[in-house]
Amino acid sequence: MTSIIFFGPPGAGKGTQAKKISTFLNLPHISTGDVLRSKIKQNDQLALELKKIMTSGKLVSDEILNKIVLDKLLNDCRSGFILDGYPRTLHQSQFLNDFLEQSKIKLSYIFNIDIDFKILEERILKRSKEENRDDDDIDVIKVRYQAYLDTTQKVSDHYMENNKDIFYNIHGDDKIDEITNKIIKILKND
Ligand code: AMP
To answer: Residue 89 burial by CB count (10 A; 0-12/13-18/19+): exposed, middle or buried?
Structure first.
């Protein structure tokens, strides 16, 4: 079983890389942002609440996220998984660690994609035009980036401290294919 987590600020390219690596390894890709965006389309009460939180750039509650991920891990991930966008809080990481421990699953790789904020801003603005995402305007980007600095970076730092042998920092300002090749090289070396 291969189990991978991708970390990185919004717009660093973790979703793009997670998708490519999911194809390369033929593993399910769990993007919590994608799951939440598809829930928003359902137009019920939960959708309205999610939309409000996500368009503000803030994080959705741990309770909702843990439920989404647990459901995916139990149902779609018998041969392994790639997590993209989760865990984003220490509470989520505790929940995930408890699940992995109980299921006797060891994490195989953690990729942390680093990028300079200026490059991020340009990328996210370009993506907002291409994908029409309403959480991609400049003020929202700042809130999302701040949520990353205040909360998620602490989670990736925690994993870095405790999983040095499987934690890889990857520069996110190279070309997409160059980054993918770097990751594939790491996967092949083990
Ligand atoms: P993403 O596509 O991963 O950048 O996620 C888009 C938005 O979905 C984020 O800005 C959050 O509002 C929400 N979201 C996605 N994953 C999580 C998570 N693990 N915890 C809390 N909120 C999340």
So the answer is: buried
Judge if the beta carbon of residue 47 lies within 6 A of ligand 1.
Answer: no
CATH H superfamily, domain 2-189: P-loop containing nucleotide triphosphate hydrolases (3.40.50.300)
Evaluate: CB of 140 within 6 angstroms of ligand 1.
no
The pLDDT of 94-112, averaged and rounded, is 97
Testing ligand 1's pocket by substitution, the residue of 16, 54, 55, 131 carrying the most ligand atoms inside 8 A of its CB is 54
> Is the pLDDT assigned to residue 125 strictly greater than 80?
no
- Write out the DSSP string of 51-107: HHHHHHT-PPPHHHHHHHHHHHHHHH-TTEEEEES---SHHHHHHHHHHHHHTT---
Give 136: exposed, middle or buried? Use CB within 10 Å, 0-12, 13-18, 19+: buried
User: Cβ(136)–Cβ(127) under 8 Å?
Assistant: yes
Prediction pTM value: 0.93
| Ligand 1 lined by 85 (C-beta under 6 Å) | yes
